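Illustration: BLUF domain-containing protein.
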Amino acid sequence: MLARWSYISTSQLDATQAEKHMEEIVQVSIPRNRSLEVTGALLFTGNRFAQYLEGAPAAIENLKASILRDRRHREVQTIASGEAPHRHFVTWSLAYAGPSHFVSDIIERALNDALEKGDEGFEALVQMMSEFSIRGRG
Ligand SMILES: Cc1cc2nc3c(=O)[nH]c(=O)nc-3n(C[C@H](O)[C@H](O)[C@H](O)COP(=O)(O)O)c2cc1C
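Result:
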């Protein structure tokens, strides 16, 4: 079975240091996700995170436990979990496009939709993640 977990959370990163802290997160995440055969994407608006992860159920649970106790964010709200029909990010250990301040209003709207509309909003969010992603391949 393929499992997925997607959530939206509120950043606790100091705004002036956010890019540096994001580098640290991505540097740790790409090799760990790769070793767990987890793929997915991470969006950061400067204020909120949205992440989508897919992989074996045990691997997803493993990462989820780490991510939930991470104090660099709070108010982690799950928007999708359970079985995934197929991989959305086959070649991406963690697709991440850098802080998306420029488009943060658009993303914030998509995040609110994902929280309010359930499945439909979630599909739109995953679509947006795949369009924004430029690194984290392999
Ligand atoms: C928003 C956010 C997303 C994260 N995504 C991942 C991820 O995809 N993979 C990963 O290994 N760690 C990720 N981390 C880091 C983990 O929370 C954790 O610090 C790291 O995996 C080390 O795990 P440990 O604290 O259990 O040793 C993320 C952290 C944050 C704040």
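Reading the tokens back as a structure: Residues 25, 28-29, 32-33, 42, 49, 51, 53, 63, 66-67, 70, 72-73, 94 surround flavin mononucleotide (CB under 6 Å).
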